[in-house]
Design a protein that fits this description.
Number of domains: 2
Number of helices: 10
CATH superfamily of the largest domain: Medium-chain alcohol dehydrogenases, catalytic domain
Helix content: 10-25%
Largest sheet: 7 strands, mixed
Radius of gyration: 20 Å
Strand content: 25-35%
């Protein structure tokens, strides 16, 4: 029987320690992936700490997986052994509900997370439903590709869902793990990009990522100058900002869209009604959107900006992310 080697937290907030487990029999619709690398995301930290009250221990984090197909269930015909693939936050959806049948698998009410109730990618191997195992096209750097399966699809999905046009103007609030990819994707999409950050250093870096303008996210006077100019403002930050000011920066029918976990959002209803503006949010994308995102990233040579650690250096990597020093994503390379 296969034994998977991994790193697990044994208690909330606990240090990740070597751990082994047997995954059991491979299901008919499942795929085993030999892991080459796995990103470290702030969601992993939340799960390690049980901040969301949904963690079970021992907990093996990791949901930004890149690897090769090692085994397939009897009903899996589209993924050959050895295929380079990726896996993100979701590992299963029911395939029969209205959302799944419409192609919105990411909205399946019984969907299962890769590190919720199962062991994740800080490991030698991982198992998932084949629907969520996405082939990685040539032209993608597999060493840095892991964050595309979480941060990448999180910021790419709103461009698809809101029908953003290349002639549009997009604002990105927060230049971090999510925001730096939002700038890269939005710029390559053809839009005019305005980056918002409280950090002057990051505003300068935003230009290198493809932003056309950079504005302080806490300077109400500067934001006011943008009134009625942006089609969509994509909020990747977790901060509590003056959302009314950002709403005024939107054009008629514009959208203030959240993918970062801002503590709360409040707005005057008349600010929405008068120019038919909206406030929205979204999770990661469906498998078909993930495939589109990877194709787009390969075509435009978009890659996350990453710092690499060995899997055996997982404790140092986690601490590096906790400290806020990561620029901009952290990736573990397997050395099992």
């Amino acid at each position: 029987m296969t034994t998977i080697k991994a790193y697990a937290a044994m208690r909330p907030g606990g240090e990740l320690k070597p751990f082994e487990y047997a995954p059991g029999e491979l299901g008919a619709d499942q795929v085993d992936i030999d892991i080459q690398s796995c990103g470290v995301c702030r969601s992993d930290l939340s799960m390690i700490d049980n901040s969301w009250r949904m963690a079970a221990y021992p907990l093996v984090p990791g949901h930004e997986v890149v690897g090769t197909v090692a085994a397939v269930g009897e009903n899996v015909t589209h993924l050959p052994l050895g295929q380079t693939v990726g896996l993100g936050w979701f590992s299963r959806s029911c395939m029969t509900c209205e959302q799944c049948l419409k192609g919105d698998h990411n909205l399946c009410l019984s969907g299962e997370g890769t590190i919720i109730g199962r062991h994740g990618g800080f490991a030698s191997r991982i198992r998932a439903q084949s629907t969520w195992v996405i082939p990685i096209p040539s032209g993608i750097d597999t060493r840095s590709a892991g964050p595309l399966f979480c941060a990448g699809i999180t910021v790419f999905n709103p461009l698809i869902q809101h029908g953003v046009r290349p002639t549009g103007r997009v604002g990105v609030v927060g230049i971090g793990g999510l925001g730096h990819l939002a700038i890269k994707f939005s710029s390559a999409w053809g839009t005019e990009v305005t980056a918002f950050s409280s950090s002057e250093e990051k505003r300068e870096e935003a230009y290198e990522m493809g932003a056309h303008h950079a504005v302080s996210s806490t300077d109400a006077h500067e934001i006011k100058k943008l009134a009625g100019t942006l089609d969509m403002i994509l909020v990747t930050a977790n901060a509590d900002l003056d959302w009314s000011a950002f709403l005024h920066a939107l054009r008629p029918k514009g959208t203030l869209h959240f993918v970062g976990a801002a503590p709360q959002v409040s707005a005057q209803v008349f600010d929405l009604i008068g120019a038919q503006k909206s406030i929205s949010g979204s999770p990661l994308g469906a498998p078909s959107t993930m495939a589109k995102m990877l194709e787009f990233a390969a075509r435009h040579e978009i890659a996350p900006t990453v710092e690499l650690f060995k899997m055996s250096e997982v404790s140092a990597a986690v601490e590096h992310l906790r400290s806020g020093k990561a620029r901009y994503r952290v990736v573990l390379e397997s050395d099992f």
